[in-house]
Amino acid sequence: MPKILVEKLKFTYPSGLKALKGIDLKIEDSESVVIIGENGSGKTTLVKHFNGLLKPTSGQVWIENKNTKDYSIAELSKTVGYIFQNPEQQLFKETVREELTFGPKNIGFSGNKTKSRVEKIAKMTNIYNLLDLNPRRLNFFQKQWVAIASILTMDPKILILDEPNTSQDFLGVNKLIDLIKHLLKSKKTLITITHDLNFASKISNRFVVVSDGKILLDDPPQNIFVRQKELVQANLISPPIPRLGISLGFKYPPISNKDFINMYRELR
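^ thats the sequence. predicted structure below, dont judge the formating
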């Protein structure tokens, strides 16, 4: 069975808004998948079903053979870690160390294991020097990394990142890309929400485009970038490099600068 299995998922908010209109999706173990769509497309509503923040109006969501209808958010948090777009929604302790300690202690890690995880993750995310500071006094970039670290200390098998590159500077985005690649080598399953196709192409070989509560496309980026009609429908724009490659008549759209150079040489 897939790591995540979504079957005929529909969700209607109490206001009557039909946010999801029949989603079928499979995500395999250790896969990196990017969920793409404009605001209001349903992408965040979809992934909030993966950790139990939302329950299906109809249909099923299975996480490691567990039907999410039968499990609480606390139970699912042992498997699924959710990093919110706004770190203010996650941070509530008096020190960064307490933030990183809270999660693993509450899911049953021993004191020694918790301490070890906190130190390891703090070093991995370059916030070790912030451990004794109040997270509310940090700048926004630092808060984002504390929020990321607070989830990683619980060592979830599945990690959801909601618009992680929002408001990050160039160095922060590159640091984030390096972290995602490291987590994939560690056999984590990653789901990233974004509307930035350029960022998405650097972290995943599978894009799931959501529009109006439905999956519009589910393919590798090379196949997505040539589907201009569907991208326009979803209010998305291909990154400059693939667009340039398409305009020059490349057989497949290049993803990176290196791809572009190699394909341009072959074209000549």
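The chain has eleven helices and ten strands.
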